[in-house]
């Protein structure tokens, strides 16, 4: 089929990269935004613009807030029929479900904290299964008051899940699509290395003055080589994070009896009860437990704050409280867990150092999720993500430029279709993200279901960009540049500037204030990033206009056959 191994690798690189490049573009772009998801949250929800807080008093602030949380109505409607054993009678009403577990989580970048409750299903079909209906809230730790549930945290609740699930939640289909794209990316990286035998030379080769096809290929090679370790690492660790839960859930299915037996043995070995006793018991002071946990951490030379807290078997004699140190000073997300008996506050267990396999897993997961406090490394993550976007985008451009003259001569429409999809995947995606921020500032703060309107704006902007790209794609069929690239770059610039101005007009937080008079780096950073995006978009629009004028009037010609290994991207 192929005359040589490099030809086969070129085919793999080209077509796998093209098919899954549209998914990977979203993964890289929204992954880069997710590095500063909490900062975007502060921009999107102005009432959360205050200084980050430590874990507050559980007894006085958090426990009353947890008791106000209700089971999620949508989850109850969907999950209750599957969990409840109808043979034992009618299901327990939603608001009468008993709380079985509490959890609270915060980081060094969060002014607000997240909390949730797992409500037990009293008559379950599988008594040994995870029979819970969940409820959650975001809370102001200063008062315990919940932030409105329909105030969408655009960074952590929209952009962040977008990069690993595409918000295609049916049967976790989006997570599987992203996983397949990550596997494909690893294959594309290996095949790209095989194709490029002169990696060192291509590291320093970029000729922007050349024709579009040549300069696009140079930039594709350059960004691919520069960020090669970054691309490989994040594709691999993304697969590692989800492998046990979604991609290879052997313990939950094929080996479930062994998994359940292991949990029971682990509970016996650690002294942490696996099942509730069915005997009511009060809850001792969790504040005293947190103070004792911090004292023990300090005694071990690792003083820190509480990052995650969970209460198991709430109100039961077998209840226990797990307290974990915040992970801002290390790569692993949380650690150094200390477990207390809930009814007395007595220490049941201190987690020992992790075994090698688990320590490696936590290190890789923590390095991918980057919740640690290292601002320079965060910006390097953003740079790596944007280089991935540039690599994929220039791959699209090269693919189209390589073929559109031949398609123009033969009347083919393949290049036009690929180009329109590329426009939507590159500039259209940015329009959707920035347009969502504009909608966030335009919609009234007290609008019911505001978050749903913002989501609709996101998909609406993206769909408009796709339609526009196809509608203006006629010149591609004549071997010219699609004007949608240029026009959508200008739209990005206009929307980005509008977002900054609207933030000023609706909140009073202009750059002079957030940078000088009343500094708030999170909001200032988002505004500056939007203005930088506007500048890059305007520069790109001018370059595209210049290239478009340079190509006007040229007659299409049939492209020569590609040299070995040249057709990729």
Could you characterize what this model shows?
The chain has two domains: 5-45 and 167-238 and 372-551, no CATH class; 51-150 and 282-342, no CATH class. Mean pLDDT is 88; it is low at 555-569. 38% of the residues are buried. The chain has a seven-stranded antiparallel sheet with strand order 3-2-1-4-5-6-7. It is globular, with a radius of gyration of 27 Å. It is of the alpha+beta class. A hairpin with a 7-residue loop joins strand 5 and strand 6. Helix 1 runs antiparallel to helix 5 and helix 1 (5-34) crosses helix 6 (173-195). It is built from 18 helices and seven strands.
The profile of the biggest β sheet is: 7 strands, antiparallel
Structural category: alpha+beta
In angstroms, what separates the terminal alpha carbons? Answer: 20 Å
What string, H for helix and E for strand, traces the elements in order?
HHHHEEEHHHHHHHEEEEHHHHHHH
As residue ranges, the low-confidence spans are 555-569
Arithmetic mean of pLDDT:
88
From the alpha-carbon coordinates, what is the Rg to the nearest angstrom?
27 Å
Number of domains: 2
Number of helical segments with 4 or more residues: 18
By DSSP, the count of extended strands is 7
Helix content: 55-70%
Strand order of the largest sheet: 3-2-1-4-5-6-7
Question: Which outline best applies?
Answer: globular
Strand content: 5-15%
């Amino acid at each position: 089929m192929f005359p040589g191994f490099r030809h086969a690798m070129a085919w793999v690189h080209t077509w796998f990269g093209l098919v899954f490049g549209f998914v990977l573009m979203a993964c890289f772009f929204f992954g880069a935004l997710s590095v500063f998801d909490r900062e975007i949250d502060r921009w999107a929800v102005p009432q959360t613009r205050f200084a980050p807080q430590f874990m507050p008093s559980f007894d006085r602030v958090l426990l009353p807030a947890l008791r106000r949380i209700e089971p999620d109505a949508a989850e109850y409607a969907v999950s209750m029929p599957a969990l409840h054993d109808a043979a034992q009678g009618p299901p327990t009403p939603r608001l009468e479900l008993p709380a079985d577990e509490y959890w609270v989580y915060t980081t060094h970048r969060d002014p607000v904290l997240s909390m949730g409750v797992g409500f037990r299903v009293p008559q379950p079909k599988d008594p040994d299964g995870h029979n819970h209906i969940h409820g959650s809230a975001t809370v102001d730790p200063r008062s315990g008051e919940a932030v409105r549930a329909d105030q969408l945290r655009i960074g952590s609740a929209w952009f962040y899940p977008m990069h690993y699930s595409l918000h295609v939640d049916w049967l976790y289909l989006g997570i599987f699509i992203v996983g397949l794209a990550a596997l494909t990316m690893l294959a594309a990286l290996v095949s790209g290395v095989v194709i490029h035998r002169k990696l060192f030379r291509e590291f320093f080769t970029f000729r922007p003055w050349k024709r579009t096809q040549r300069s696009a290929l140079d930039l594709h090679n350059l960004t691919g080589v520069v960020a090669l370790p970054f691309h490989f690492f994040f594709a691999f660790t993304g697969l590692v994070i989800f492998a046990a839960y979604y991609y290879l859930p052997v313990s939950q299915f094929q080996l479930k009896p062994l998994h359940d037996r292991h949990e029971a043995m682990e509970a016996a070995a650690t002294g942490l009860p696996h099942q509730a006793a069915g005997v009511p018991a009060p809850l001792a002071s969790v504040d005293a437990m947190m103070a004792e946990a911090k004292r023990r951490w300090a005694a071990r030379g690792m003083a820190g704050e509480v990052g995650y807290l969970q209460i198991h078997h709430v109100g039961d004699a077998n209840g226990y409280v797990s307290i974990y140190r915040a992970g801002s000073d290390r790569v692993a997300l949380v650690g150094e867990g200390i477990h207390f008996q809930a009814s007395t506050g007595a220490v049941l267990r201190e987690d020992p150092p992790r075994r090698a396999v688990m320590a490696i897993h936590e290190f890789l997961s923590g390095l991918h999720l980057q919740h640690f406090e290292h601002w320079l490394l965060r910006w390097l993550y953003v740079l790596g993500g944007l280089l991935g976007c540039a690599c994929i985008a220039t791959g699209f451009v090269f693919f189209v430029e390589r073929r559109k003259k031949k398609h123009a001569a033969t009347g083919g429409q393949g290049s036009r279709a690929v180009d329109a999809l590329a426009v939507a995947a590159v500039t259209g995606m940015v329009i959707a993200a920035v347009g969502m921020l504009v909608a966030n500032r335009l919609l009234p703060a007290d609008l019911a279901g505001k978050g749903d309107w913002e989501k609709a704006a996101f998909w609406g902007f993206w769909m408009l960009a796709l339609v526009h790209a196809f509608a203006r794609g006629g010149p591609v069929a004549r071997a010219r540049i699609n004007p949608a690239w240029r026009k959508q770059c200008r739209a990005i610039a206009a929307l980005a500037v509008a977002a900054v101005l609207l933030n000023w007009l609706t909140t009073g937080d202009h750059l002079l204030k957030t940078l000088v008079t009343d500094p708030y780096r999170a909001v200032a950073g988002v505004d500056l990033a939007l203005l930088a995006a506007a500048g890059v978009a305007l520069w790109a629009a001018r370059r595209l206009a210049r290239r478009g004028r340079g190509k006007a009037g040229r007659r299409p010609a049939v492209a020569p056959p590609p040299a070995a290994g040249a057709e990729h991207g």
